Amino acid sequence: MREAGDLLRVENLVTRFKSVERGKWVTAVDDVSIRLAPGEMVGLVGESGCGKSTLGRSIVGLERPQSGRIVLDGVDLSSLRGRALRERRRAIQYVFQDPYASLNDRQTIGETLAEALTIIGVKDREKQRRRIHTLLDQVGLPDGLAERFPRELSGGQRQRVAIARSLAVEPRVLICDEPVSALDLSVRAQVMNLFLELHGNLGVACLFIAHDLALVRQATSRTYVMYLGRIVEDAASAELYARPSHPYTQALLGSIPSADPRIEAHREPPPIFGDIPSPTNPPSGCRFRTRCPRATEICAASPPPPVELAPGHHARCVIAAELHTLHRSVPHGLPMPA
């Protein structure tokens, strides 16, 4: 069911892969539901291997979900076929993590952008030239780069070209998969500022996948926290960072280093144990329970349902309400409350 104001809704999505272990499957995305409003920038965070990228790739059509729905502007994409599906999917574009692997090194930048324009019916050479000039200008690149090859560009320039290619088809949704993590620190801020500028100027909705929690806090209006294929908490970003109510979210925030050396000198390791369990054999009940300092026998019984703690704030934890009522935030660089 579409809620007023939603542009994209992912409902109970499940995406599985065959495991390298014979006869076993990996459920990378397990009953996940998220939503984006028009022009909204939403964060998706979690440890490596939790299913963030698979969720993004499933939304854009690079992976095929086993069940669930992806609803764009009220239309269930699974109900479409052929040209109708391709035209709808064009409204959702993907910005990959690695700018070195996402571009064809045998094509000039101009040829790469012209190919995207041809797909949407812009075939006149002069119209393409003008549009390519506009796209390069939008991402802060000089017009002369159109004649160069990706191998001749820096990582930051390549990522800007990848963004321009996504914008060429005039999308309504961008799935940004760790788009600055492969870049040097000196250019991360520049590319991130570009995302924020484009988001503000063009009104494109963005799902921003990242493991940099501080970056997500600054850039997004809402945040989803994912663990071992499931969403364990979601809220407005300010609320989530001020009142994290799932032990995993608290541990993630407690692991953020502090810029204050006095705090950092006394910071203890966050209270999270061990490694992520095997996705081919996840724990029963709450999947975080094997690493959770607050786990009890009830956590193993069945998966906890989402609890609404405040308007728009949900957590899947049997003690989420208790943690929420502590009225305590987890400052950067400090362990979660005992």
From TrEMBL:
SUPFAM superfamilies: P-loop containing nucleoside triphosphate hydrolases. PROSITE patterns: ABC_TRANSPORTER_1 (PS00211), ABC_TRANSPORTER_2 (PS50893). CDD domains: ABC_NikE_OppD_transporters. Transmembrane segments: none annotated. SMART domains: AAA. Its main location: membrane. This is Oligopeptide/dipeptide ABC transporter, ATP-binding protein, C-terminal domain-containing protein. It comes from Pseudoxanthobacter soli DSM 19599.
